[in-house]
Design brief:
This protein is mainly alpha-helical. Helices cover 34% and strands 0% of the residues. It is built from three helices and no strands. Helix 2 packs across helix 3. The radius of gyration is 23 Å and the shape is globular.
């Protein structure tokens, strides 16, 4: 007995990248202040900045948002071990 598969819809799933959109975390007030103050300093290529925050304060998130605002191609984040 032959079965007709022309009426069966193919099993199609959206690509994983389309199904799961990245969640953009909101900055806390202290983190927003750090981004704004950090953007006042390094305007010239090759300039450096230093921020000191406690563990779990969101240093990497702050650095990423600063890099987005400065429209940089490369970002170097150095987390110094506790003293």
């Amino acid at each position: 007995m032959a079965t007709d598969t022309s009426s069966v819809a193919p099993d199609r799933h959206p690509p994983l990248a389309d199904a799961i959109a990245p969640v953009r975390r909101m900055l806390r007030s202290g983190q927003q202040a750090a981004v704004h103050s950090g953007l006042r300093g390094p305007r010239k290529p090759g300039s450096l900045g230093c921020m000191v925050f406690a563990c779990g304060a969101g240093k990497k998130l702050i650095a990423l948002r600063m890099a987005e605002a400065l429209d940089t191609r490369f970002l170097l984040v150095w987390c110094r071990p506790g003293i």
